Amino acid sequence: MTRTLKPLFAISLALVLTLSWSAWARAEHAIRTEFVQIQTEDGVSLAGLLRQPERGGSRAGVVMVHGYGGNFYSDVMSFLPRALAARGVTTLAVNMRDHDLDPKRNRFEESRLDIAAAVNDLARRGPGPLFLYGHSMGTNRVLYYLAATRDPRVTAAILTGLPGNLFEWNSRMFGRDHASRVLSEAQDLVAAGRGDQWLLVDLGPLGKALYTANHVVSLRGPQTLSDPFKNMSQITRPALIVHGLADPLADPAVAEEIRRNAPQPEQVTVSLIPGADHSFRGHEKALEEVISTWLLRRLGP
Amino acid sequence: MAKRDHKTIGERLERFREVRGLSQAVVAQRLGIQSEDLKEVEAGKRPLSKKWIESLHEAFALDPAWLLGGKTPDDL
């Protein structure tokens, strides 16, 4: 490179970097974030993060519900809301009451109260048509909420990484005998009026964990309200199901099974992402694209 | 340790965490590390140090042999 071209090249490079940085900064600033504290009807305080498009108004609102080992800011709950807000969709990612709780003592059905509080909060802000999003065990929570409340404010559901029936999931992990033994012990305690008693569960190489009997029975008992197949059979509104084909935690076949259980399966879209794991690592863009395209299409022009 | 091994160990760690219902924040806090570090281990981007393996065993009774052994993250 000649002596005269070198400074020109350096200036051009600096200009490109400056413009790229300012475009990125503009995109980041196009989202307004706000920490929120919401109250459930039984008095539990939940933290969450609201992301709103800064300009152009909000086209829709999504309440985002995490799974068993999640919270409002981890993995999918972090990158997906940012992507949606950048496309004009307001999101409220909120902690469920069992977030970061170790050991677990909550009952599954309490999820309904947590989701209701989040839906109430977002609906009050008027962001446009409301959607409910769930990831992993958050899908069980979302389907239960919709089946139990038939909340007319919710337009549709978006579900990713579905574990399916939680007793079956546990059986796949630890064997049916082990899963049945733990459940039976928990059921005996609940039947004896000692549901709040702690159970020390041997998880083999995964160590030993404490759960209350009520917690185990509410998640995996025969009368559980967490069964997504039963709940889906009562939901008539549209749904999008996205599953990674390389998900080692949740069987991708569950996606199609859930769709078949819907009263109107044609209203349910299943999208499978090759190579994606449970957290969609390395496939974040693909997930963002599938969800935002489906969601925005539902809103019309 | 090869990258593939890091990935498998990371997947096993995530499996342990999800089965136990523990967030990255809770596990990281018990190990005295940052959540971001744990996230990188789970993603197979960095190795799990001997100290962290010992801490995982101490804090959660997680079996180091399971974490490091086997060919797939599925074996329990």
Short description:
The complex is a heterodimer of chains A (301) and B (76). Chain A is of the alpha/beta class.
Can you characterise this structure?
The complex is a heterodimer of chains A (301) and B (76). With 301 residues, chain A is α/β, with parallel strands linked by helices. Chain A has 2 domains: 37-165 and 226-301, Alpha/Beta hydrolase fold, catalytic domain (Rossmann fold, 3-Layer(aba) Sandwich); 167-225. In chain A, 42% of the residues lie in helices and 22% in strands. Chain A has an 8-stranded mixed beta sheet with strand order 1-2-4-3-5-6-9-10, sandwiched between helices. In chain A, helix 2 (76-86) packs across helix 10 (284-299), helix 5 (166-174) packs across helix 6 (176-191) and helix 6 (176-191) packs across helix 7. In chain A, 44% of the residues are buried. With 76 residues, chain B is an all-alpha fold. Chain B has a single domain (3-65), classed as 434 Repressor (Amino-terminal Domain). Helices cover 66% and strands 0% of the residues of chain B. Chain B has helices spanning 3-20, 24-31, 35-42, 50-60, 64-68. Chain B starts with a helix and ends in an 8-residue tail after the last helix. Chain A binds chain B through residues 67-71, 74-75, 98-102, 104, 136, 173-174, 203-209, 248-249, 277-279, 281, and chain B through 11, 14-26, 35, 39, 42-43, 60-63, 65-67, 73-74, 76.
State the main characteristics.
heterodimer, A: 301 residues, alpha/beta, Rossmann fold, 2 domains, eight-stranded mixed sheet, 10 strands, B: 76 residues, mainly alpha, 434 Repressor (Amino-terminal Domain), 5 helices
- CATH homologous superfamily caption of the largest domain in chain A: Alpha/Beta hydrolase fold, catalytic domain
Shape of chain A: globular
Residues in helix, % of chain A: 40-55%
Which CATH architecture of the largest domain in chain A? 3-Layer(aba) Sandwich
Largest interface: A-B, 29 and 28 residues
Largest sheet of chain A: 8 strands, mixed
Number of domains of chain A: 2
**In total, how many beta strands of chain A?**
10
Query: What is the 3D form of chain B?
Result: globular
Largest pleated sheet of chain B: none
**N/C terminus separation of chain B:** 22 Å
Query: SSE order of chain B in H/E notation?
Result: HHHHH
Q: Order of SSEs of chain A, N→C?
A: HEEEHEHEHEHHEEHHEHEH
Task: Give the C-alpha Rg of chain A.
Answer: 22 Å
